[in-house]
Amino acid sequence: MKDPRDIFKLPLAERIQLVQDLWDSIADETADRPLTEEQQKEIARRIAEHDADPASALAWSEVRERLWSSVAEPPADYRVDTKTRIEMVLERSHSWPAEDQQELIEAARDIEARRTGVYVLSDEENAAIDKALKSPLIPEEEVLAFWKARGIS
Fold first, then answer.
1. Contact 107, 115 (CB under 8 A)
2. CA dist list (Å): 146 to 114, 136, 137, 139
3. Which of 13, 57, 112, 141 has the most CB atoms at less than 10 Å from its CB?
4. What's the pLDDT tens digit per position in 86-130?
5. What is d(CA 45, CA 82) in angstroms, rounded to the nearest whole number?
């Protein structure tokens, strides 16, 4: 790319990825910077405010909905078709920490299972079932007697 203005000719998904990559590089460089005294005071004030009235906290989904309803134009992810939005999220997910990527995989598997009625076990789940099948089982009568002795039947 000879002319920096060529960035504006990139497809939307690539421009969004470029912005994400730039933002990540800024975050990486500033992650270890100490907070200013003003920032520390603001954090302390917010914690005290929350401690005084924990019920005033809002769920992220509510905050996000309020934000989007207050702007005239939704973010770029919301101005493209669903397939493109999915591709954009999946592309960005490559830079996420492994635990976040795993959470995305599990959420997608749960949705797929709900839609198809077929749940495909993960390797961990298969291993746990194999282990359970190889362990000694307690007869059902003993289990029922255990619960009955505790008033639960």
1. no
2. 35, 17, 14, 11
3. 13
4. 888 888 899 999 999 999 998 998 888 888 888 788 888 888 888
5. 40
